[in-house]
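Predict the 3D structure for this chain.
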Amino acid sequence: MDTYFQQMDQILAHEKLDRIEKERQLQLLMNTLIEYYFQQYIKYKENSQRLYYQAHGYQPEKKAERMVHFLFGSMTYERTP
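Done. Predicted structure below.
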Protein backbone atom coordinates (compact mmCIF):
# COMPACT_ATOMS: atom_id res chain seq x y z
CA MET A 1 0.00 0.00 0.00
CA ASP A 2 2.89 2.37 0.70
CA THR A 3 3.95 1.99 -2.92
CA TYR A 4 0.59 3.34 -4.08
CA PHE A 5 0.85 6.27 -1.68
CA GLN A 6 4.33 7.04 -2.94
CA GLN A 7 3.18 6.87 -6.56
CA MET A 8 0.20 9.09 -5.77
CA ASP A 9 2.47 11.57 -4.04
CA GLN A 10 4.81 11.63 -7.06
CA ILE A 11 1.93 12.31 -9.42
CA LEU A 12 0.49 15.10 -7.29
CA ALA A 13 3.88 16.70 -6.64
CA HIS A 14 4.97 16.63 -10.29
CA GLU A 15 5.23 20.27 -11.30
CA LYS A 16 5.34 19.78 -15.08
CA LEU A 17 1.98 17.96 -15.26
CA ASP A 18 -1.21 19.93 -15.64
CA ARG A 19 -4.28 19.06 -13.56
CA ILE A 20 -5.91 17.01 -16.30
CA GLU A 21 -2.81 14.85 -16.78
CA LYS A 22 -2.48 14.39 -13.02
CA GLU A 23 -6.10 13.27 -12.87
CA ARG A 24 -5.56 10.85 -15.76
CA GLN A 25 -2.51 9.32 -14.07
CA LEU A 26 -4.32 9.08 -10.73
CA GLN A 27 -7.21 7.30 -12.46
CA LEU A 28 -4.81 4.76 -13.95
CA LEU A 29 -3.23 4.22 -10.54
CA MET A 30 -6.64 3.74 -8.90
CA ASN A 31 -7.67 1.29 -11.63
CA THR A 32 -4.57 -0.76 -10.82
CA LEU A 33 -5.48 -0.74 -7.14
CA ILE A 34 -9.09 -1.77 -7.80
CA GLU A 35 -7.94 -4.59 -10.08
CA TYR A 36 -5.49 -5.87 -7.46
CA TYR A 37 -8.11 -6.00 -4.70
CA PHE A 38 -10.71 -7.57 -6.96
CA GLN A 39 -8.26 -10.32 -7.90
CA GLN A 40 -7.54 -10.87 -4.21
CA TYR A 41 -11.28 -11.23 -3.57
CA ILE A 42 -11.64 -13.77 -6.38
CA LYS A 43 -8.76 -15.81 -4.92
CA TYR A 44 -10.41 -15.67 -1.49
CA LYS A 45 -13.78 -16.85 -2.85
CA GLU A 46 -12.12 -19.50 -5.00
CA ASN A 47 -10.31 -20.97 -1.99
CA SER A 48 -13.39 -21.00 0.21
CA GLN A 49 -15.49 -22.65 -2.52
CA ARG A 50 -12.78 -25.21 -3.25
CA LEU A 51 -12.58 -26.20 0.42
CA TYR A 52 -16.37 -26.54 0.58
CA TYR A 53 -16.58 -28.77 -2.49
CA GLN A 54 -13.57 -30.87 -1.51
CA ALA A 55 -15.23 -31.51 1.86
CA HIS A 56 -18.20 -32.89 -0.10
CA GLY A 57 -16.06 -35.24 -2.18
CA TYR A 58 -15.47 -33.21 -5.32
CA GLN A 59 -11.99 -33.01 -6.79
CA PRO A 60 -10.89 -30.10 -8.99
CA GLU A 61 -9.83 -31.25 -12.43
CA LYS A 62 -8.44 -28.15 -14.08
CA LYS A 63 -8.20 -24.39 -13.96
CA ALA A 64 -9.85 -22.09 -16.47
CA GLU A 65 -8.65 -18.61 -17.30
CA ARG A 66 -11.25 -15.90 -17.73
CA MET A 67 -11.12 -12.29 -18.87
CA VAL A 68 -13.70 -9.79 -17.65
CA HIS A 69 -14.11 -6.18 -18.77
CA PHE A 70 -14.99 -3.57 -16.16
CA LEU A 71 -15.14 0.21 -16.13
CA PHE A 72 -11.71 0.19 -14.48
CA GLY A 73 -10.26 -2.03 -17.22
CA SER A 74 -9.88 -5.64 -18.28
CA MET A 75 -8.91 -8.26 -15.77
CA THR A 76 -7.74 -11.84 -16.26
CA TYR A 77 -8.09 -14.41 -13.49
CA GLU A 78 -8.06 -18.17 -12.99
CA ARG A 79 -10.85 -20.22 -11.50
CA THR A 80 -11.59 -23.87 -10.94
CA PRO A 81 -14.77 -24.98 -12.73
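The chain has one domain: 2-79.
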